[in-house]
């Protein structure tokens, strides 16, 4: 039979993770960090759009699961884009 263990004091800061999670959330909500994160997100979006302009979109407008584009589809897209631009 195993021995019984009696605990006189429990250090809840070590035993529980929840207070550390709350502290992390409070630390993450600093305005400077939010601004840096927003700037990084906008920078990634701008770079992605610029890459699409230079190289052309890699995904068809109909989505990732669409079949391969036929020459007819490409001609129709060019005709549509020429009327829009």
Structure description:
With 85 residues, the protein is an all-alpha fold. It has a domain at 11-59. It is built from 4 helices and no strands. It has helices at residues 12-15, 18-28, 31-55, 71-84. The longest helix has 25 residues, at 31-55. It is elongated.
Would you summarize the structure shown here?
The chain is mostly helical and 85 residues long. It has a domain at 11-59.
Low-pLDDT sequence parts: none
Span of the ends, CA to CA: 84 Å
The chain-level structural class is mainly alpha
- Radius of gyration (CA) equals 28 Å
User: SSE order in H/E notation?
Assistant: HHHH
- Beta-strand residue fraction: under 5%
Per-chain topology:
Elements: H1 12-15, H2 18-28, H3 31-55, H4 71-84
Give the key terms.
85 residues, mainly alpha, 4 helices, elongated
